[in-house]
Amino acid sequence: MHRTQYRNITAFSGNFAGRLDWALSGGWYAAGGVNLHLIKASRGAFTADTTKTMVSVPGVNLGWGYRFHLSGELAGRVEINYTMFKQNGDLSQATNTVGLMVGAALPLN
Asked: Full-prediction pTM beyond 0.70?
């Protein structure tokens, strides 16, 4: 979530996502899900319709990764993911993002 103020425009942007991970063989996994990007801004911020104050853009996300053991209960993960938002009349362009995640995890007991 982001909130931005610039001159006389205030904007809030929130990306809400859910996804499922599917374990494959070994430590490999694939993932897929949906996104909903909500943008609320001061009147006049959207050029296509200056009376709108909020737009929503649906999207999808995909991921491919590998989980592995590091030490004791510590596990590691490497993932590449791709998020796609289609073109929207209010925002005028499609948005696609590639991400690379490297992380470590411990189980909660």
From this structure: yes
